[in-house]
Amino acid sequence: MLGKVLNFFDLDKPIQWRAEILAGLAVAMTMIPESLSFAILAGFPPLSGLYAAFIAGLVAALFGGRPGLISGGAGATVVTLIALIKTHGLEYAFAAVALAGVIQIIVGIFKWAKYIRLVPESVMFGFVNGLAVIIFSAQLQQFFTTDAASGQQVLLQGSTMITMASLVALTVAITFFFPKVTKKFPASLAAIIAVFAVVLVFGIKTRTVGDISPISGTLPPLHIPSVPLTWETFKLILPYSAVVAAVGLTEGLLTLNLVDEITETKGNGSREALAQGASNMLNGFFTGMGGCPMIAQTLVNLNAGARSRVAGVVAAITIMAIVLVGAPVIEKIPMAALTGVMMVVSFFTFNWKSFKILNKMPLQDVVVMIVVTGITIIWHNLALAVLIGIIISALSFAWKKAIGIQVRTSIDADASKRYALHGDLFFGSIGDFEKALDIRNDPQRVVLDFQHSNISDMGALESLNKMTGKYRTAGKNLVVENLDAKSRSLLQKAAGMSAVQVV
């Protein structure tokens, strides 16, 4: 029994405790300002962002499908709720988050997460590169301030800009060069501590975490969303919940795949969907704004040397400890330090290899990568970007298959005409297949040879049935030969409505 428990939480594997704990602290430091910023942006109370970071982070760390994967209050999911909050208020948003969790649990139960394998490599490139640009561009906001007179965002000026830029540059330099000195301490955490110390020792005035929002609070309170339990409410929140669930699962499962590649291990997508769903249900009932896996914090975690579930647990507990007792200290951390760390993360997130192989990639893959990257950057809609990328890739694949089918003719010893098919027969290729058949001039017996082909879908079955009928109308006999087992099975299932003759 103990062995099963240890195996479930991956505690049967060696754990680098120092690396995991330090990585967790670094993750917590970078997650706090992001969670606060997106909560404020969407219209949630600031603490809702930290509650989401704690709940999502802890549940994912303990029960998720991928050790090393970090979850929190992610902006990608939260921004989809802005319209709902503006029109109906926070209570409906919390209800939508809880329902999104139910949808994600259903995906996990039915193991639909496995279909993430259908995402092409070009879509993955676009997804990662788009997120890298988003992470970087989000940091640029720290170089702007709100003009008191106009209320508009204006660029920092004078000494304020010099201070901010200098501290960011110092953070970037430390993060880049610290690993050359030692890898026993996370570079990101070292940079945050060093810049924090510089600001305190020299009394430098600069924007801090506390300038975003106070972070002191209590444990997440149990709160049943105050919404009417009616069919109308369900219809209202369902579209928002579906989008939250889709975006969360998309970012989560693609990030899981990315971690799989980095660590050369295998995660469990269905388990991850279940954990994410459970965390969002809890968020909905404990005033969290909802969340999902976060690629930036995950990369901070991995770059710090974490490979187990410990770092995620440490990060979640650290965030809650800060909310309860540590706020006075953390609120003084310079935003410049966190900005610099995230800029470095965005640099390492971007798949620079995609540029090197650009001229070696098929044109359609280049187009898909650019489209997915563009949609991700412009609309911040990961689910839409990935969906469009998959559609373009699928259409490209179908086009290739359609134009790839070839039909070669010959005459058998018994004077039968033989059509030898080369390539898949499916909905995209049936047009060329039907054009190749010469019903009027063919002899009495015609053979379709599938030795180098197969029946792929219902469109192919319907086409074969239609052409069989046309030959019969012309007083001729069309037969099919050399079908593989899968094609025979499809014909057998359609036996009641198919006139195709197999020999």
3D structure, described in words:
It contains 21 helices and nine strands. The two termini are 57 Å apart. Helix 19 links the parallel strand 6 and strand 7. It has two domains: 15-390, no CATH class; 405-502, 2-Layer Sandwich (Transcription Regulator spoIIAA), CATH 3.30.750.24. The mean pLDDT is 89. By secondary structure, it is an alpha/beta fold. 63% of the residues lie in helices and 9% in strands.
What does this entry show, briefly?
The protein is of the alpha/beta class and 503 residues long.
Percent helix among the residues?
55-70%
Number of strands: 9
The domain tally reads: 2
Give the biggest sheet: 5 strands, mixed
